[in-house]
Amino acid sequence: MCASFGQRCLTVGRSTTSLLSSPGHHSVRSTNGGGSASTLNNGTNAAANFQPGNDEALVTIRMRPDPQGRFGFNVKGGCDQNYPIIVSRVIPDSPADTCFPRLNEGDQVVAINGVEVSHCTHEQVVRYIRACKESVSQELVLVVRPNAYIGEDIEEPDLQYVPLTPHVADCVPRPDILHQSLLLLKDSLASGSAIVNFEV
Q1: Average confidence (pLDDT) over 112-116
Q2: What's the rounded mean pLDDT across residues 122-136?
């Protein structure tokens, strides 16, 4: 399960070698190969849960969105872009950063909540991730191949998951609203997407 949002998990050391094929530096967990078919909230039916091959060193990562509905990571790629689904950015202190095992930049996303995504378009992957927020558990379960693209030149995606819809919740106490706004502004300026992704 994901750790508390207020606590940072230990960040496990990672290799900078490109296209790492060994388990390396994540805590490796086996994925649940059994189970019946599942239906995502967007109506997409998964005929069977994802089952990794015996030769694959994969990691299962679980997280839930923060109070603003963000998981805290960006991805790029998709079969429509002839590129695997790669984590291009992880926002500090976000659920993706504080869960254990931690999601890391350069990880390749192999499956989302039991659905294998190698043949999915970028838009489909976006829908799968967003559907998790609307489920009863709100849990996002990623199966990733660690460090798959460390050292690669990974551009930021056009659509960013952090925040999915940039805003500061009305229920956040007044001092925290300013803090959250400054964090959003800092992140948007750093990524060069301030005009597109930041709302005053």
Answers
A1: 95
A2: 91
Q: Is residue 43 part of a domain?
A: no
The CATH number linked to 139 is: 2.30.42.10
Q: Per the domain annotation, does 21 fall within a domain?
A: no
Domain assignment present for 81: yes
Q: Are the C-beta atoms of 99 and 2 separated by less than 8 Å? A: yes
Domain count, the chain: 1
* Domain that includes residue 137, residue range: 59-145
Please name the residues in contact with 178: beta carbons below 8 A apart, sequence gap of 6 or more. Answer: none
**Which tokens belong to 106?**
């350069």
- The answer to whether residue 196 is domain-embedded is no
Q: What is the pLDDT of residue 28?
A: 40
Assigned token pair, 136: 């009863």
What mean pLDDT comes out for the span 13-39? 35
Mean pLDDT of 91-99: 95
Cβ neighbours for 79, distance < 8 A, ≥ 6 positions apart = 118, 119, 120, 121
Q: Choose among 34, 42, 139, 121: nearest CA to 77.
A: 121
What is the pLDDT of the chain when averaged over all its residues? 68
Beta bridge partners of 86: 76, 108
Q: Which of 152, 147, 185, 179 is nearest to 166 (CA)?
A: 185
What is the pTM (predicted TM-score) of this model? 0.55
